[in-house]
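We modelled the chain as a single entity of 195 amino acids. Its sequence is:
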Amino acid sequence: MIWQLLRILCLSILLTGTAKAQTIGVIQSELLVLDTERLLAETLFGKKMTAEYQAAREKLSTQNRQIEAELEAEEKLLTELRAQSSTYEFKSMADAFDAKVQELRRTSDLKVRELERNRDLAPVAFMRTVEPILVELMVETGGAVILDKRSVLFRRDVVDITSLAITRIDQKIGDGTGFVVKNTKNDPENAVPQE
């Protein structure tokens, strides 16, 4: 009889706990783990940022190839003009060509550095944009801390909120259209809804 009562009591506690967890609908833990790399790679917004970087990189590469072809043609023409020009005229044309090449290289290097800087700042801008959603998830789950998966040595899967965060970010901001991510040289600001 006592064993039956204990069994009923244990079953009741288990069912109450399950019902409570089902009504809450999300993990309940003070310590949460988030895979930030996966968040950037799998959200619509992160995918769009990555695609925009790749498109800008390809565009810059195409421009550089076109400039290179134009410079090669100009150099070939300059070589042909060498026989028809005086030493002074040729030196003047060669110096002008060299100055043009140097300026184009400087401009290209600046564009490449700017593109790479934007790529390096993209994860920071991304995290600042999704921060309100992650804070909301932290409150819903009763979390006190969200740890980056890379800094956690051992963990239980039940505290990993990455999949939930991806779903929530996709629901709330989609691919980021309508959000402006502002970057400054040293400190990206939070993204704000575009008016």
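As a brief sanity check on the tokenised model: The chain has five helices and four strands. Confidence is low (pLDDT under 50) at residues 1-24, 184-195.
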